[in-house]
Amino acid sequence: WVHYADEHRGVAIEFCIPNGVDSVLKVAEPVRYSDDLPRLGVADLSGNDAPLKVMKVLTLTKSAHWSYEQERRVVTFARDSSKKWEALPFNKLELSAVYLGLRMTE
């Protein structure tokens, strides 16, 4: 809550993947928690898939301090490169819970 919902002033959303629903969450990958900084080798920097390999190493690695989170992330390139960010749509059946922060304003 402190990190993702503005110290209990925000909202946390829980998702699930129901049977029969085509979900972007199916490609979510587990975050790798490590005491060491991620390393990139020559193989990571070559080939057509190099940008995706590098992006995954950088976005799927966090300090071991955060391992209790057991986080999963969807890593992809924006479909419209002119935008700074992109919201991925989800099926309403994927929404399993909404948690409101204790310090939320009316």
Brief summary of the model shown:
By secondary structure, this protein is mostly beta strands. 9% of the residues lie in helices and 20% in strands. The mean pLDDT is 88.
Structural overview:
There is one protein chain. The protein is mainly beta and 106 residues long. Helix content is 9%, strand content 20%. Helix 1 links the parallel strand 3 (32-34) and strand 4 (61-63). The model has no long low-confidence stretch (mean pLDDT 88).
Keyword list:
106 residues, mainly beta, two-stranded antiparallel sheet, two-stranded antiparallel ribbon, 6 strands
SSE layout and pairings?
Layout: E1 11-15, E2 29-30, E3 32-34, H1 50-59, E4 61-63, E5 72-73, E6 95-100
Parallel strand pairs: 3-4
Antiparallel strand pairs: 1-6, 2-5
